[in-house]
Specification:
Elements lengths: L3 H7 L4 H10 L22 E3 L9 H6 L9 E5 L5 E5 L7 H11 L6 E2 L13 H10 L11 H4 L2 E5 L19 H13 L9 E8 L2 E6 L11 E7 L1 E6 L9 E5 L4 E4 L8 E7 L28 H11 L2 E8 L36 H5 E3 L5
Antiparallel strand pairs: 1-2, 2-3, 3-11, 4-5, 5-6, 6-13, 7-12, 7-14, 8-11, 8-13, 9-10, 9-12
The structure holds 2-oxoglutaric acid and manganese (II) ion.
2-oxoglutaric acid binds next to β6, β9, β12 and β13.
């Protein structure tokens, strides 16, 4: 069994899709022994340690953003994937809780846009958190109850709001990008030697234990010289990193809570996918790093999460993962070209669903990410 994944990769044509299906399978569960786990350090010939630009962010600035000093970050590269950087959880204890809370309570708020807006009125999707919390905190395990709006959340867009239908960003669909997320993204980009990176668009993905995200490439941004940053919180995921062609073989790796991935340079336009969420085996289901006492300084942009809010976040995160991607859309000093519509034929983010399910079709919101149980 252990060699199953390797032999699929060697097969050649459509190796990525086969690997995706291999890891998505539930019965019998897939063998995960070929999945790279960066949290265990350099353990095989594929992974190497990467130097970061330690002078780019002061220790005080890093701490104010809820991050360890850059010199303490554990960063890795993968042979064969130049420009791909994996940073193993650089967050100070106590700061990830804040990002989980922002993603669940703050970022889904108007004027940001979420999947529920596609078939619900603005009034109905107002205050998703407030409308859901009472029901979530009273939930008894094992009992089937109607899903709250928070549990139906699949994506939220920030800054330049990605249009899933046209596959474009545009000047007229823009709201302010959250400044605290901008700060963290800028520090991470600087540490990776992209000091000019500007966080302009965010896509937040909300995964439940049975969700997956199909094979796609993120190419709608107009400047591909800047990196794509990806932050993970909550349950772990298996992430597949492929090549420049859809059928190129892929490498599987875990993304745990707090991990950051940077796709830059020759890796900026690689195909990738998330076939599986892996639930934490601990008794309380919450990753250890989300349970630790806070080391965040008082002057941090990262604020303490109230017990009441954290209670709801904990319940949510026991079966879910949140991923935040931060993108620069425009080149420095460049505006959107007039009348432009970059409609490429390559499977891009909104085509991702094609790869992940054989179920019936829903709207764009349901198509993008799939749950095996067919929820909506
Ligand atoms: O959830 C992830 O790790 C990947 C998300 C992603 O690829 C995207 O939003 O474009
Ligand atoms: Mn992507």
């Amino acid at each position: 069994m252990a060699k199953m994944a390797a032999s699929i990769v060697e097969h050649g044509e459509d190796a990525f899709r086969k690997l995706f299906k291999f890891y998505k399978r539930r019965n019998p569960p897939p063998d995960l022994s070929d999945v790279i786990d960066f949290s265990k350090g350099v353990i095989n010939g594929k992974v190497f340690c990467r130097e970061l630009n330690t002078g780019s962010v002061s220790e005080a600035a890093a701490r104010r953003a809820g991050l360890h000093p850059v010199e303490d970050w554990k960063a890795f590269g993968l042979h064969g994937y130049p420009g791909f950087i994996f940073i193993s959880n650089p967050f100070l204890s106590g700061s990830q809780q804040y990002w989980v809370k922002q993603c669940l309570k703050v970022y889904p708020r108007k004027p940001n846009i979420c999947n529920l807006d596609l078939h619900m009125s603005a009034e109905e999707t107002q205050n998703i958190w407030e409308k859901s919390t009472a029901q979530i905190s009273q939930k008894r395990s094992g009992k089937r109850e109607p899903k709250t709006l928070l549990e139906k959340l699949r994506w939220v867009t920030l800054g330049y709001h990605y249009n899933w239908e046209t596959k474009t960003y545009s000047a007229d669909q823009h709201t302010p990008f959250p400044s605290e997320l901008h700060t963290v993204a800028q520090h991470v980009a600087s540490a990776c030697s992209f000091p000019d990176f500007t966080a302009e668009a965010g896509i937040l993905n909300y995964y439940h234990f049975d969700s997956s995200l199909g094979i796609h490439v993120d190419e709608s941004e107009l400047d591909h010289t800047q990196p794509l940053l990806s932050f993970s919180f909550g349950q772990s995921a298996i992430f597949l990193l492929g090549g420049l062609r859809r059928e190129d073989p892929a490498t599987a790796m875990f993304m745990h809570s707090g991990d950051i991935m940077v796709m830059s340079g020759p890796s900026r336009l690689l195909y990738h996918a998330v076939p599986k969420i892996v639930i934490n085996p601990g008794a309380d289901l919450v990753p250890q790093c989300l349970l630790q006492r806070s080391d965040v300084p008082e002057d941090s942009v990262v604020r303490r999460v109230s017990e009441q809010d954290w209670d709801v976040c904990t319940k949510y995160i026991q079966t879910s993962r949140i991923n935040v991607t931060v993108r620069q859309v425009l080149g420095k000093g460049v505006a959107f070209p007039v009348g432009s519509a970059d409609r490429s034929t390559a499977p891009s983010l909104n085509d991702a669903y094609h790869e992940s399910s054989s179920e019936g079709e829903g709207g764009v919101d349901e198509k993008r990410m799939r749950s095996s149980s067919g929820d909506s």
